[in-house]
From TrEMBL, chains A, B:
<protein>
    <submittedName>
        <fullName>TetR/AcrR family transcriptional regulator</fullName>
    </submittedName>
</protein>
<dbReference type="Pfam" id="PF21993">
    <property type="entry name" value="TetR_C_13_2"/>
</dbReference>
<feature type="compositionally biased region" description="Low complexity">
    <location>
        <begin position="212"/>
        <end position="222"/>
    </location>
</feature>
<dbReference type="Pfam" id="PF00440">
    <property type="entry name" value="TetR_N"/>
</dbReference>
<keyword id="KW-0805">Transcription regulation</keyword>
<dbReference type="InterPro" id="IPR054156">
    <property type="entry name" value="YxaF_TetR_C"/>
</dbReference>
<feature type="domain" description="HTH tetR-type">
    <location>
        <begin position="1"/>
        <end position="61"/>
    </location>
</feature>
<dbReference type="InterPro" id="IPR009057">
    <property type="entry name" value="Homeodomain-like_sf"/>
</dbReference>
<feature type="DNA-binding region" description="H-T-H motif">
    <location>
        <begin position="24"/>
        <end position="43"/>
    </location>
</feature>
<feature type="region of interest" description="Disordered">
    <location>
        <begin position="196"/>
        <end position="222"/>
    </location>
</feature>
<dbReference type="InterPro" id="IPR036271">
    <property type="entry name" value="Tet_transcr_reg_TetR-rel_C_sf"/>
</dbReference>
<dbReference type="InterPro" id="IPR001647">
    <property type="entry name" value="HTH_TetR"/>
</dbReference>
<keyword id="KW-0238">DNA-binding</keyword>
<keyword id="KW-0804">Transcription</keyword>
Amino acid sequence: MRTDERIALAMAELLRRQGYAATGINQLARAAGAPTGSIYHHFKGGKREVAAAALRQTGAAYIQLLPLLLDPHPDLATGVEAAFAAAARDMESTGWANMCPVGVVTAEIADVEPELREIAAEVMQVWVEEGSRYLAGRGLSEQEAHTVIHALLAALEGAFVLARGMRSAEPFLAAGRTLAVYVGALEAAEAAAGPAATAGAAGPAGPGPATGTGRPPTAGRA
Amino acid sequence: MRTDERIALAMAELLRRQGYAATGINQLARAAGAPTGSIYHHFKGGKREVAAAALRQTGAAYIQLLPLLLDPHPDLATGVEAAFAAAARDMESTGWANMCPVGVVTAEIADVEPELREIAAEVMQVWVEEGSRYLAGRGLSEQEAHTVIHALLAALEGAFVLARGMRSAEPFLAAGRTLAVYVGALEAAEAAAGPAATAGAAGPAGPGPATGTGRPPTAGRA
DNA sequence: GTCTATACTCTGATAGAC
DNA sequence: GTCTATCAGAGTATAGAC
């Protein structure tokens, strides 16, 4: 692996464990196996530029997990619930430390480091765009895909925080269940209304398992 | 206001804007209007002890908002949606900076400051207990109250993070809508099953507005 | 490109006068 | 209890040999 890649990767790992302010250049150099001089050679902007590269890198990697986790499940609802359970297992196996660096940095220093906040915003915007495009491809309307991806990302980042504090999988499981129910109701409604409009890659995609009431959850609430 | 209260309050304010590591003692002294010596007089544990006091203080204050925000609404569903909308407005009015200090500190330094993580865990545990007790008092079963409060807290903390990064109210609105739909379905189910068991403080508490299908969202999913 | 040595600033914390 | 002066150490960043 190239040196600059090693440095950015080490930074991402440190960011999600201790945040930006608590991460020092010397510590980063040790973790990356490179002297401090190399860091400033590859990243003339110093610590901030390394963090920026780390955020972009992990942001791009994270959104690829969405199709990877949801594609195997024929209906979105069970896929969402399984994805949250998988996130819980992953975090528990790392001692409740493996949070998302983008979330950590945004929470920590959004106001004091405007440049990093801007990058976090770009990353999140990509999450929303690619995520809602994927969900639309799975049969949700554009508007509902937009709502679901926002709620999903919020629930995920928040579950990271709560699970990390309480050292419990329950935030993930509860968030996964409520979202799965919401998405399941949407899917049932779309299937009942017009399954012809969106010929997704999934096979039969009939109504849910034993829950096919075909009732949308009060589409236009507010 | 007493000096130690002023110090803890100033710390809470700094914590939610820049996190723990980036907040210095001198900055805290300036913000609290007290010299550094006073800080160590009132908090012999130094910076860490001040942060601990700030977390406990704001944690206790935040959970009181739950009944305050939900009591005015006869059904939980609209109350939840309104509460998330209120949080979005509050955050927007402060330039997307007013995050929850407990969430910030937990995300930032849960692993590097075990003592503060422990305190955050205690605060969150109180949130879960008092929150689920309140929700049970509003008619949810104990098990569902437990699930809803976990999902609600996760969605809230996560919405803070996303909204702060993207400077958008949408994470709050989307999270509020999905949770409101979930809670609304629960309420409709309970009302249809047996409205006698839980004689809450609410009045008629009939089925939801124009959505009274009385269909539980697949109670025992997993 | 890699690595060492160092300059300069700021940190948390303390001692002690008032 | 309040406040000032100061310490020892860690922080980022840089200069320059290899």
